[in-house]
């Protein structure tokens, strides 16, 4: 598979932009830009990117595997173009590529589940193009209603195509790694009573009640005294965790049930843990250690509410907007419906 670079976030300026590098040599291409060590597959790390001696950006790098790497950058179109050119491999593909079938075929090779593959295969065979052609024949009011329904359906299946990113954060020894292991179904993260065990970001995927999620275990929050630089690695892990919280769909802030807690950080949802240590734990508290199945069920229910998920089943032959860029263009067309809708989406 040739090397491709494409933007996962909607095109244009923004706070954060995500580039995905896929294909043969993806990891090697990113290593060429990194002034710091690139993480192992399944991990995330903050990297300093440079090109020809010039600093480009400080980015969060997530290595899914050697042929698929994500770079989370500051949202400057000029910066993105510079990073793309520096990667030097293949064709820049944004999420609103003109050839919808070709874009769907490219994504089909990376589908994470059978449901995602079925949806993308329909689009590769022209389902979305046909639906847009039908929409173009309608008058303005009918087209607006049809596009609204298309966008609603597309957003409802978006988590099937791109798993929402869920960050587990909180103070040290609050049960983040234990919950992470219970969710992903394996001992991916080291658990230990010693504070500061988790330093790098660790990622894993889990399917909860039919929805795929990407979970990230992060370094625990605590004050670290600077003793001859011994805390530098842990502090770097904390900075990476704080940066990633800004880019997650949901951030669970884990705290021990029954203990006095400081204020909840902005953008986080409280999740009380270690319920097995209390005779009468608070409602909604979990224990991933003694009741991992119950913890998974609680997290699944919380995520469905937080994300307002109404996951529709796969409908054979149904055309949908299958990338964030296409959904963003549809929303723009609804806000300003004058002009050709299909032209703006293609």
Structure in words:
The chain folds into three domains: 4-94, Gyrase A, domain 2; 100-155 and 314-345, no CATH class; 165-307, Rossmann fold (3-Layer(aba) Sandwich). Helix content is 37%, strand content 22%. Mean pLDDT is 80; it is low at 89-98 and 188-198. The chain is built from eleven helices and eleven strands. The protein has an eleven-stranded mixed sheet, sandwiched between helices. It is an alpha/beta fold. It has helices at 26-33, 77-87, 100-108, 114-124, 127-136, 140-161, 176-184, 232-245, 292-307, 324-335, 341-345; strands spanning 4-7, 16-22, 43-51, 54-65, 68-74, 91-94, 165-169, 201-208, 211-217, 250-256, 269-273.
Q: Share of helix among residues?
A: 25-40%
CATH homologous superfamily assignment of the largest domain: P-loop containing nucleotide triphosphate hydrolases
Overall outline: globular
Q: Give the strand order, joined by hyphens, for the main sheet.
A: 6-1-2-5-4-3-8-9-7-10-11
The average pLDDT value, as a whole number, equals 80
Number of strands: 11
Instruction: Just name the CATH architecture of the largest domain.
Output: 3-Layer(aba) Sandwich
Alpha-carbon Rg, integer: 22 Å
What is the number of domains?
A: 3
The structure class reads alpha/beta
* Major sheet characteristics: 11 strands, mixed
User: Which spans have pLDDT < 50 for at least 5 consecutive residues?
Assistant: 89-98, 188-198
Strand proportion? 15-25%
CATH hierarchy, class of the largest domain: Alpha Beta
CATH topology of the largest domain: Rossmann fold
Please provide the ordered H/E string of secondary-structure elements: EEHEEEHEHHHHEHEEHEEHHH
Number of helices: 11
